[in-house]
Amino acid sequence: MVKFKKIGMILTSTAFSVGVLSPMAQASANVKEPQERVAIQVASTETKVTKNMLIKQLNTLFPGKFNFVTEKDFSMGQGHYFNDDKTVRYDLNFHKTINGKDAFGSFTFKGEDLEIENFYYQPANIADALYPVKYSEVEAKKIAQDFLKKLPNTANYKLREDGIFGDFGSSFSRPLTEPITYSFTYSPTHNGVLISDESINIAVLANGEVTNMYRNTESNSKATFDNLEQKKNESDILAQVRENLSVDLRYMADYNYQTGEASAKLVYMPSTGFNGVHAINGQWQTMNGFTSEVPKATGIEKLASQPLAPRKKDITVAEVEELAKSFLKVNSDKVKLQIESVSERENDNGETIYDVNYMYYHGNGGSGTSFEVNKATGEITDYWDIRRDFLETDDKVKPISKDAALAKAIDYLKEWAPSYIHNYSKPIEDTAYDKYGKQYYFSFPRIVNGIAVVGDEISVGISADGKLSALHVNNRKIDNWPSVNKAIPADKAKATISEGLKLELQYAKQDGEDNHHYDLVYSPVYNGSLFNNIDATTGEWLQKVDDSKEKPAITHPTAGGELTYLLRQNVLEVKDPAHFNADTAVTKGEALKILVKSLSYGYDFGPNGRDNDTQSFNNIDKKHPLYKVVEQAVRMGILQPGNQFAVDTTLTRQELAEWLVRVLNLESVAKHSDIYKLNFTDASSIDKAYAGYVALVSAMGLIDGQQNKFNATEKVTYADLAVSTVRLAKAAYEQNNDRRYY
Predict the structure, then answer these.
(1) DSSP string, 579-596
(2) How are beta strands 115-122 and 210-216 bridged, if at all?
(3) I need a surface site. Which of 152, 260, 290, 625 has the fewest CB within 10 A?
(4) What residues does 165 pair with on adjacent strands?
(5) What is the mean pLDDT of residues 558-584?
(6) Which residues form the signal peptide (predicted)?
(7) What's this model's pTM, rounded to 2 decimal places?
(8) Cα-flanking dihedrals φ and ψ of residue 413, to 5°?
(9) pLDDT: which is higher, 341 or 23
């Protein structure tokens, strides 16, 4: 997790409120590099929109839903727009505590009509969204569709099922104390054909509440479309794609925002030269339009053969301030640069970073953001030039050539981030000139063991006149890189990809400010997803079609639902669910693993998981497969450090009672065993040390008695544990337990 430490150089008291959204790692190398969006403030004197106007719009869309929120509970943010979209947005927020639980909402309205663009809402009570759920996915889909109808101009929208806007193979578990959420993505259509890159995402809790909506669409009133009747046969285009299919070996970087860890997988991916095939003329779709020649990726060429010296070792705060004044200066009497603050923090790699917050004051308002400087090297690691958004520019200036812009980008890297570049290559993907943003945007991939890394690159923006418009160093600290020698043969991966290849017909609009035409394109779909790759070490698809639903249900007379739920949430690991005997006694090690995974964000709980210098038990060292689980259990308070932990011993019912009580942080109450009266007929067989624990779990319904007996020393089965685990999750939520286990 990011650690912050203030070093106290607050230069003014002006509030800083504009930030840069860093680019996300690409899901696949054949996807155009997303550009950073910078929020630019609008001066309060330039807008007539009021908080009451936004509240009225909110109540129109959600009649009666937010009656519990008063006008004083709402706050309105300052109007803003983005560097790539000048439409002004307005934010409305509230936060309120109801019966000890927090409810909050955040809503964004845009344009003169104050159309809602996105929102996030967390109800105060989500108990009905925990297992067992109140609404199924089918019922939630109906709720999402009904909500979609409330939004303007959505009659032609269709549910997407190709994975383009979903998670890319994420299989980590989430705490069962978090609500079950169903997510549905809809895209507009023309003549029944989906329009790519436009969508509305709607999230519905399992209690029926619509809690999230994000809209990424634009008006098609001026749009023209290719004639659907002129398209080529899908089978002919499929044969064309398969004939020209090739695969590339890559590393794929992944970052877990819950644990703060970066890791890498070795993958095979379809070669990245094209995104689709024109459905009418058969040309290849690239980032620069359509071409009749088969696109091919560029080979690797390092930016520097040897490490270069850092720009300025151990740069000081004063030196950073001077750098900022020089780097950000504006040659205009109408604009005043002010460095608001320089603060120090530790990034995810453990490096000390200076955050330089600054404002440009112009007219009656101003624009502000920040950039980053590495303290150890004095190099700029994150920057976006916002001067282009308020300074006058000559729109008729012809942009420099792509080759000239690339040369400029490399020169800027040698000037501002030299110590990084020996690990990076020239772009291996084509680069297009962004006519709207008036810039080139180059992606320099990291090279490890001679192959490129997807999702770990240096991004550089070069404006039409050759100036540096953006720089972002995305250098993840990854300790373990899978050996290239472990990769399966390329032809085997190619055969798998070819077999899973299908085509999806879509309308796609090419880049260009004045281009309103949509081309009809066949886009490749790999094993059910537009973006998918092969695990190079196993030969299996990284993203499987409905992976959770592929896992069959576990049949059991009393715990079938709970067992199936834990299986599909990646909490319970079962190789053969159809023949799984849930009445088998569970060992302490396995039981602990299930409990820890049910209450923690997903780790790799194996020996390559999070580093930890502790060893709480003599027999559980770092080489033990359950080391991470045991240490996490100690952090959570389930276990107390000791000499030995009997991993392979079966767990008894009274021992499970103790663990459940510790999770709920009620051990101090349970220890007073003499105040409890146990009404079980076998109460005398319960160890006095466990009496308080048994009384509490029985009263809370976490463990059921059997024919008025507790059977304290009997073994806990997988079925017993599944039922207790699900009940524990709801009890932890209802207890308002704010502890989060990472």
Answers:
(1) G--TTSBPBHHHHHHHHH
(2) antiparallel
(3) 152
(4) none
(5) 93
(6) 1-27
(7) 0.73
(8) -65, -40
(9) 341
